[in-house]
Amino acid sequence: MPPASATKSDFPWWLAAAIALAVVAALCIAASELYAQVFATVAKGIGITVFVTVVAFALASAIGLGIALMGLSGSRWLRQIARFYVEIIRGVPILVLLFWIAFAGAPAVVAAWNALTAPLQNAGLMGELLVRDVSLLWRAIMALTIGYSAFISEVFRAGIQSVERGQIEAAKALGLTRAQRFRLIVFPQAIRTILPTLGNDFVAMVKDSSLVSVLGVADITQMGKIYAAGSFRFFETYSIVAYIYLILTVGLSLALRALEQRLRRAQEE
Fold it and tell me: Which of 187, 205, 216, 253 registers the highest number of CB atoms within 10 A of its CB?
């Protein structure tokens, strides 16, 4: 049993202080008509922020896992393609990638699609796809997906490589196929190792989702920008924006930490 001094030092005073500040801020919002109005306006973007984060992170995780498996495959060419993808994407800032995909990548894809489907368009079997048909929301989601997939692939790769080689050899001796070894032996152990890092990436994506506001996507940040530009209440508006992001990220971090502790206890048992 740890000494009393250690127990007191381990008490999450930072969390108590954060909760106290959140309660005080909530009371100020409820008591002030101005802050309540700002909050009501900015909160309209919460749904878009959550949607962008969840969809982009799910797609980035799927692509990242595929890239990680390519990087660990027995094919030299697949490994080189995976490494090329990771190094190139990681070297480009998310904001630059967002602009490139929105204003260069999307038009290029639309042009390529129209070129491939030109015979069908000429025959009247399908209409021409226009750049404006690809919404800015989905351009932003694809930019976050591509940007984060490179980082997540490295997380998956490290987690998979952390599994002891002896267990894989034992699975081979039992006659399990490569897919069965990955599904039954490797991935269940790797996910416990990579979960904390994946959680950190998810929280980071919540914050980086604010970058989609540069495309006019109506997320939390964009709603704040619109309100501040019209009312010139910059202090009140961006205080509320920061408050909402803090509630989302801190709450998510606590939930992920609780999940990690639960998995750790289950593993020890």
Answer: 205
140 CB burial (10 A radius; 0-12, 13-18, 19+): buried
Reading the block at residue 259, the tokens are 């999940």
Q: Which two tokens stand for residue 177?
A: 């196929």
Q: Which long-range contacts (CB under 8 A, 24 or more apart) does 202-206 make?
A: 202/53, 202/57, 202/252, 202/256, 203/249, 203/252, 203/253, 203/256, 205/53, 205/56, 205/57, 205/60, 205/144, 205/148, 206/49, 206/53, 206/245, 206/248, 206/249, 206/252
Instruction: Quick: pLDDT tens for 55-70.
Output: 999 999 999 999 999 9
* Mean per-residue pLDDT of the chain: 87
pLDDT of residue 77: 94
Residue located via tokens 């048909």:
133
Distance, CA of 188 to CA of 190 (rounded, Å) = 6
For residues 102 and 96, give the distance between their C-alpha atoms in angstroms, rounded to a whole number: 10
pLDDT number for residue 269: 62
CA gap 245, 238 in Å, rounded: 10
Low-confidence ranges of the chain (pLDDT < 50): 1, 6
Give Rg (Cα) of the chain: 23
The pair of three-digit structure tokens given for residue 60, joined into one six-digit string: 């980035």
pLDDT the model gives residue 3: 53
Q: Which domains does the chain have, with CATH numbers?
A: 29-268 (1.10.3720.10)
- The answer to whether the beta carbons of residues 178 and 72 sit under 8 Å apart is no
Nearest residue to 194 (alpha-carbon basis) of 142, 259, 254 = 259
